[in-house]
Amino acid sequence: MKILITGGAGFIGSAVVRQAIAAGHEVVNVDALTYAACLDNLASIADNRNYAFYHENIRDRRAMDRVLAETRPDAIMHLAAESHVDRSIDGPGVFIETNVTGTYTLLEAARAYWQANDKSASFRFHHISTDEVYGSLGADGMFTEETPYSPRSPYSASKAASDHLVRAWGETFGLPILVTNCSNNYGPYHFPEKLIPVVILNALAGKPIPVYGAGENIRDWLYVEDHADALLTVLTRGTVGRTYNIGGENEVRNIDLVRTICGLLDELRPKTTPYADQIIFVTDRPGHDLRYAIDPTRIRNELGWRPAVALEEGLRRTVRWYIDNQTWWSTLQTRDGVGRRLGTLRPPAMSETATAKI
Ligand SMILES: NC(=O)c1ccc[n+]([C@@H]2O[C@H](COP(=O)([O-])OP(=O)(O)OC[C@H]3O[C@@H](n4cnc5c(N)ncnc54)[C@H](O)[C@@H]3O)[C@@H](O)[C@H]2O)c1
Predict the structure, then answer these.
(1) Which end of the chain is more exposed for a tag (fewer CB within 10 A), N or C?
(2) Dist. CA 92 → ligand 1 center (Å)
């Protein structure tokens, strides 16, 4: 199958590209190379004859039309997005432009391409989204595919809007769509502004390890390679028009997660004092959702998929990877905003302008 993957130079997109190539698919990677992108994530497959890269923005309709006409994919997997909640608090504009308007632009380009190809029944538009669209859970319950949307951050609201657009294009125009909503991912190549890399890198640097609030927030963590595997499973075997929730069945409080990582560092990179001594509690993120938990019954029962990597094992692999790949992360630490506390409700600028350029 020839798959056009948007956002293939990001954390999850690059895992999907690597796995798709390994599985024998042809891949066309379309990425605008924002601050969050890293082409080094793709070094292992960059010269593969089944791989092509287009440095383009999904908000550029003419570029999307041209890439589709030139490459003629059998499917689109849409991962390109602004993805960091804290950045969406400081500057929501680019989240609307990429996640909402960009998805709309890509959908229209995909629809035109699909219609020009006699509305091929085998074509797929697979939209990759997050469990954050469902809002925040209390102590009980889980997100199912029927849970009403209740996004609470600019990021999750923009992803919710994009999910609605994709489903509308399926219902109204008959575009063969698939939607997946996944829990928090972690693993190698995770951009150094997200929780798990921040914990590892601050610990290694001897800096304070910041935990938001009291660390009581609960997330359902999924190893990124498992997510990539689930996405390719849904793409190739999922029922058109259907939504699949993807989760790790690994619920854990942030503070327990951070302590586990510190324990792994004590073992893998020992020093005289425990890394957990570096933990500090900082002011919570505004609107911080308390708990996310995915009910993965549908993808397990209908497609036979379940995660292969347990949290303890995935964290061990991840900590080891960051210890072994300093060149990768030290380059990214110089990028704009990395290493600074973001999303603290500073007064907004008079005129907010998008940072990504077409
Ligand atoms: N990270 C998670 O835990 C998680 C969980 C569930 C779902 N998701 C979703 O998965 C997708 C990928 O997440 P990620 O963590 O890999 O993100 P990421 O921020 O690491 O990567 C995003 C990629 O998209 C590219 N991009 C951004 N704007 C673009 C534009 N306008 N045109 C073309 N390319 C653009 C960036 O250059 C980057 O390579 C997102 O849609 C996100 O909402 C993420």
Answers:
(1) C
(2) 15
Checking if the pLDDT of 283 tops 90, the result is no
Q: Give the residue, out of 16, 83, 98, with the most ligand 1 atoms within 8 A of its beta carbon, to mutate for a pocket test.
A: 83
Which residue, judged by its Cα, is nearest atom 12 of ligand 1? 79
Contacts 24+ apart (CB under 8 A), 148-156: 152/287, 152/289, 153/85, 153/88, 153/89, 153/287, 153/289, 154/88, 154/89, 154/92, 154/95, 154/96, 155/82, 155/83, 155/84, 155/85, 155/87, 155/88, 155/95, 155/99, 156/85, 156/130, 156/132
Asked if the model's pLDDT at residue 347 lies above 90, the reply is no
Model pLDDT for residues 206-251, shown as the tens digit of each residue: 999 999 999 999 999 999 999 999 999 999 999 999 999 999 988 9
Query: Is 187 close to ligand 1, i.e. is its CB under 6 Å away?
Result: no
CA 11 vs CA 37, 80, 84, 86: distances in Å: 8, 10, 12, 17
CA 56 to chain centre: 19
The finding on whether 7 has its CB within 6 A of some atom of ligand 1 is yes
Measured distance CA(220)–CA(131) in Å, rounded: 10
184 in ligand 1 pocket by Cβ < 6 Å?
A: yes
**Number of neighbouring beta carbons within 10 Å of residue 132:** 24
Q: Which of 12, 38, 84 to mutate to test the pocket of ligand 1 (most atoms within 8 A of CB)?
A: 12
CB of 79 closer than 6 angstroms to any ligand 1 atom: yes
CA-to-CA distance for 114 and 68, rounded, in angstroms?
Answer: 10
Overall size of the chain counted in residues: 358
CA of 3 relative to ligand 1 center, distance in Å? 17
Q: Is 182 in the pocket of ligand 1 (CB under 6 A)?
A: yes
